[in-house]
Amino acid sequence: MSAQQFVKVGTSALIFNAKNPDEFLIGWRISKSHGTKYTLTLEITSDSWQLPGGHLDVGEEVADGAVREATEETGLNVKALGEIECTNDIFKNEDPVKHYTTHHVACEMIEADAVPRVTEPDKCAEWRWVTREGLEKRQMNGEKLFLPLENLLKKTAGTNKLRNPRVSSEEA
């Protein structure tokens, strides 16, 4: 890493399905901004599953950034429930290497019947509800996860952190 490079701060929204506390929203990433890999033919591929998210703005609280990104990318109105994890995401296959710390924030939908929309078709092709087990199955079947989501899955293994915390605390 050169002296001019800095670690950047990202935020993601783990939006829980209002109708099923075990499901959260993932999107099929098609953006070429980063998290891409170059094939031998120099074709850029970026297809991977991701959470809604992006860069934290200067002066912005982490939870506010997650809510902003969720609304911008999905059209959903969400409320932050709190940060659930932070991942250290180093994109080693990029030139130059990119390094992020990503703050993952649990969010709930304000309107239970709302439907996510693709509002940035140049970045995301579709949104889907998935359980942790469903996401792990996709990964085992060779579907790629965007690095922050892959690291979140690893870091939360054996926990209930990818389940709606409101429901989990009510059951306790």
Question: Could you walk me through the main structural features you see in this protein, from its secondary elements to its overall organization?
Answer:
The protein is an alpha+beta fold. It has one domain (8-171): Alpha-Beta Complex (Nucleoside Triphosphate Pyrophosphohydrolase). The protein has helices at residues 62-74, 132-140, 147-155, 165-171, and strands at residues 8-17, 20-29, 37-38, 44-45, 48-50, 53-55, 78-91, 98-109, 124-131. Strands 1, 2, 5, 6, 7, 8 and 9 form a 7-stranded mixed β-sheet that branches. Residues 35-45 have low confidence and may be disordered.
Name the features:
172 residues, alpha+beta, Nucleoside Triphosphate Pyrophosphohydrolase, seven-stranded mixed β-sheet, two-stranded antiparallel sheet, 9 strands, 37% strand, 8-oxo-7,8-dihydrodeoxyguanosine triphosphate pyrophosphatase activity, Nudix hydrolase domain-containing protein, hydrolase
Short recap of the structure:
With about 170 residues, the chain is an alpha+beta fold. Helices cover about 20% and strands about 35% of the residues.
Secondary structure layout plus pairing:
Elements: E1 8-17, E2 20-29, E3 37-38, E4 44-45, E5 48-50, E6 53-55, H1 62-74, E7 78-91, E8 98-109, E9 124-131, H2 132-140, H3 147-155, H4 165-171
How many alpha or pi helices? 4
CATH homologous superfamily designation = Nucleoside Triphosphate Pyrophosphohydrolase
What is the top-level CATH class? Alpha Beta
What fraction of residues sit in β-strands?
35-45%
H/E series: EEEEEEHEEEHHH
Q: What class do helices, strands and sheet pairing give?
A: alpha+beta
Query: Which residues sit in consecutive blocks of at least 5 with pLDDT less than 50?
Result: 35-45
CATH topology: Nucleoside Triphosphate Pyrophosphohydrolase
Most strands sheet: 7 strands, mixed
**Whole-angstrom Rg:** 16 Å
Shape: globular
**Average pLDDT level:** 88
Give the N-terminus to C-terminus distance in angstroms. 46 Å
Query: Count of DSSP E strands?
Result: 9
| Helical content class | 10-25%
CATH architecture: Alpha-Beta Complex
Number of domains: 1
- Oligomer status: single chain
